[in-house]
TrEMBL record:
The keyword Cell membrane does not apply. Coiled coil: none annotated. This is Dual-specificity RNA pseudouridine synthase RluF. Its EC number is 5.4.99.21. Residues 13-70 form the RNA-binding S4 domain. It comes from the Bacteria. It catalyses: uridine(35) in tRNA(Tyr) = pseudouridine(35) in tRNA(Tyr); uridine(2604) in 23S rRNA = pseudouridine(2604) in 23S rRNA; a uridine in RNA = a pseudouridine in RNA. Keywords: Isomerase, RNA-binding. NCBIfam families: pseudouridine synthase.
Amino acid sequence: MAWTRLYDEAEPQRVNRWLAQNGVCSRREAEALISQGLVSIDGQRVDDVGRKIEPGQTLVLSDRAQAQLEGALTVMIHKPVGIVSSQPDPGQVPAVRLLTREALVGASPVIPDFDNRLAPVGRLDMDSRGLLILSEDGVVAKAVIGPASELEKEYLVWVDGWITDDKLALLRHGLELDERQLRPAQVEVVGRQQLRFVLKEGRNRQIRRMCELVELTVVDLLRVRIGDLVLGDLPEGRWRPLTVAERSSLIGLAPR
């Protein structure tokens, strides 16, 4: 089904700008779709890349346009400890090297090679494990790690040290990193020396550094969810491509 959305803002706006603001595609991608005749407003094909959409009008992306946008590869992998997300130092193994045919769960339209520009979308440090997204889709990257992202990232964290109510209160709201106040976090005890963190930001080694500030030492960290995308039972070291529905959920493109 073609992607359809009613323009309900107060003022007219260029089509490419509106699509980019809503995370559908970049402005350049929108202009390319218009040039190919794949965008229409109220049933009329849009031919001018500078065209504005008016309040109350309905924009439609054709099935072919959707297929082009969804063609950029995005995968999820269960990253093991000891694997780096990207930019390895000598002797280190980057996560993209695990994307082999043998490690694939299910089917994939392609097996990544050197032609794929897959980059980590929300890194995990080498000592952490769990859900890692690799993508060549800029829209997905913006939705997950862009400055306006509100997607939750959920972690299970095993720690050494005394867990007290005062420490939990600080972890939830009261800490600074790099002289900047952290956003509120959900933190709860879920097992013996085990905490559950839900964050909406991703500073460098954030959870480990937060725990250090309250005299807790992280001994294991597992990311289990990003937005609605869950690690589930994907085995460690294995990967699979995201489905169209999963991509749509991440970028907030459920049809309406």
